[in-house]
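Quarterly update from the structural biology core.
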Amino acid sequence: MSSWTARSPELARRLRIEPSSFALLLVLVALAGVVVLPFAGPLIGRWGTARVLRGGAFVVAASLGCVAVAFTVSSWVLLALGLSCLGMITGLWDVAVAVTVADLEARTGRSLLARAYAAFGVGAIIGGVFGWLAIAYRVPVSVHLAGVACAVVLAMRWVAGNSIGGVGVIVSPRGDTGASGGSGRKDGVGAAVRGFRAPKTFVVGVVAFTFAVMEGAGSNWIAIAALRDRGLAVAVATLLYVLFLVSTTTGRWFAGSLSDRFAGSNLLRAAAGTSAVGIVTFALLPVPVGPPIGVVLWGLGIPIGIPLCVGAVGREGPAAASGISVVTSLAYAGYLVGPPGIGLAAKLTGLTDALPTVGVPLLIIAMVPARAIRPRARSRSTISETELP
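Predicted structure, tokenized:
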């Protein structure tokens, strides 16, 4: 994902894409990732995580190939097709990785999910760094993305081949494999509905939504805002995007230890405040000081919110699974509407003005119900094996 994002300023310039039009492309990517989620459970239940990861690698390679060809021939259609497929596999891989990590947690008795989120950030940093190097050494977009596609296929085949076999496969009492249906599906729908009706769960989900909006906005708009509105070179704009990824990964890596030392409500307020200051600094303080300082503050604060929200509802005993589902769904909604919403607002105010105009009020709103973010003591086997996605 970060490989194409790092080259997005060049894609936007080559295809003459305005921020409002680029926002529509981001909607396609996010929508594709959300649409595939209801089908992720049955697919993993039938084939297991290893096969889903391995098969998805070939779709990712084809998607990046479409993006590369789209840049070469200046085709909107190929770009939209490639990004849509990339979004679908990203959503499917999210669930597959979550199931694998949950299985590893059950086997080892260790908390690994926060580190898995951080590993996603490490991958994004690597992709961003290689993107910056490709720009600095004037590697064509098509060559760069073709190389990334080959690396993804080879790496995922190795990872899937060395993973635990059979993870995620649902076995019925008769010994058949496949997603369970019937009453199990009805129970799942009922649990989801009850989760949305729980006031605390919904409020925590709204907080997660606000953080997701501004994390998605940072990932998608920092490089373009630096290039178009702050007047920085393409390589510098991409480097700021990489700096944002490094900051978010650092914040995510230490989120668990920070939540053990400080009250969740206070930590969430500090994270929201730090992010708000960072957004204003990035958008308004003069070059060259403002953008890098703002990106670091924005990136350090924004990734802490969602893990805190998931932790607040993930220790609610039997209601944990439905609570996590609600918070995750609202967070995905934030990733879906945030970047394109910023793009549409930029059409009225300009991109650097739209970021603080939208982001700061949202983060202030997130501070209000922060008292609900009070994770309880962790208990083993909170989510049963049958409740996994």
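DSSP finds 17 helices and no strands in the chain.
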